[in-house]
């Protein structure tokens, strides 16, 4: 190596080259964004950019998403520059006021778009780090399972799964943290062989529960699971290696996977076909955060190193999103975090839309509280990229007001003739359409397997009204609000229309319908072609809003959920033992804590009510479980219900099913990439169902409990 070339010198040159490239790119972007164009030139420029994107979007190269993001940012930045410099008219107070509201919502959306691109520009795809072969070098771990008011039927499976974790028994302690102080939970812990911790108060909810347990435990690491999140046997072996590899590692997070349908999936009938909103966060955003050392603790399915946690004062108690707030403090203290994008636990989703909304309100309020009391853009300890990632995560929950603005903006012209954008309809299309199309095309490539475009619109619209007030109030007074526990394991006994949840969207739907009528009247009375074009533009926008609101109303049509134990697909070898001694080889089709569906290798009728035993094998071991045949669906398909299981039999059922990581790996993140046509068609169908259900509700006299017929395929 020459004296003039050193590793430090090479690093400096590399940074200077990157800086020069960034400056050059910024100058080029500024030129492209600000150059003025006539309508025809703008359309031509947009068409060229769009054709380039179409040619590149399906190429299998990791650089392609970056190119698409760059093209999208060109069109979006050009649109925002045009909006801020050419369209802010002041012809009247109404125009100015409403116009400022709309442009503020657009600026918010643009900022979130830019930060989102940065966040997922280069996902890390971190692999687990192997542990030393010598198990004496493995550290001690305390497994903490906090609970408050959840039923024992939900909690016991999680506790049993924790007892079969693949970790040296002398280095593993399991604690059930019961803030409900229930004798049946204490008795269960004694029976199953885990430790029971309670306290005399419920101060600071889940965060206080964990902090109280930290004072009574001593493991070098703590693994935290919500009481409905069942860990797989491999959880610790998959997550602990990075701690031994990196002494500054403080948190290792894994995905939250839910094997039951959330209210959106159940009410819209797309469970298993369309990714739920959690898949975007755990399938892409956390992976993107990991590249920037900005992965944050999510409250469950994670391991935290005790010493750093105690150094920052334990789990944060100042906000109701204690998990993300704790991660910020750890990062400020100079510690690192990691995300392993392989599901190592599975849990239950919320059962009703109202419970789901309540949970998201808490998340939104908590993120707004952090933005107010511990803003990541200020204070010491965080790198610039960490500040951007955390800020984007918090800004995301402020979408309530922009969504409401977008749902009502065209009504300003249709009702009052107000021009919230001072430009011709053709000029608006020339700038806005490329911005929207390129952003959607880019997100189809970047997020297509994790989030479907228009379903995300439906999801955020449903929540917009309900997170609007909590987020704004949390910024004004972060002490308002309290921690609410999300109910799990409940039932929806009958289908019904939740008019209470749907009420604000019914009002918005009526306003948009009135807007369409007003637009038609204006069309009849229009004097110029320019005015006609403007009417058509606003009518199209209004009809789109009505389609979204129809789908939102469909989400408010609660579909019955009468299974206490949710079925999970599973294909594994088993043996069905009949009372006469016959052993029938079979394969499982699905399982739950209460039963199983199997298919015999060779057709043989088995009468319902027959007492049988099903033998399940796993890792060169097998055990028989008592059961009763419930249905003989055909010559080979049989549904069985488990009988009364001993504790060891129940533990074996968990070991051979819920605690197997391969089940969740096969089910998680396996959706086809979204297409605009598929997404549009599905949302249109959902919207039509929403309008149909609304009609039923109206004709039933507006009764909240008015029954709604189950969708095709629902259990009767």
The radius of gyration computed from the alpha-carbon positions, rounded to a whole number of angstroms, is: 28 Å
Report how far apart the termini are.
77 Å
Low-confidence stretches: 709-716
Give the total of domains.
3
GO molecular function, one term: cellulose synthase (UDP-forming) activity
Function: Catalytic subunit of cellulose synthase. It polymerizes uridine 5'-diphosphate glucose to cellulose.
Domain Glycosyltransferase 2-like: 143-312
Main location: membrane
Descriptive overview:
The protein has 716 residues and is an alpha+beta fold. The protein has three domains: 14-119 and 399-490 and 496-555, no CATH class; 139-349, Spore Coat Polysaccharide Biosynthesis Protein SpsA, Chain A (Alpha-Beta Complex), CATH 3.90.550.10; 571-656, predicted glycosyltransferase like domains (Thrombin, subunit H, Beta Barrel). 51% of the residues lie in helices and 13% in strands. The protein contains 23 helices and 19 strands. The strands form four sheets. A seven-stranded mixed sheet has the order 3-2-1-4-8-6-9, with helices on both faces. Strands 14-15-16-19-18-17 form a six-stranded antiparallel beta barrel. Strand 15 (583-591) and strand 16 form a beta hairpin. Helix 3 packs antiparallel against helix 4, helix 14 (353-373) crosses helix 18 (453-476) and helix 16 packs across helix 18.
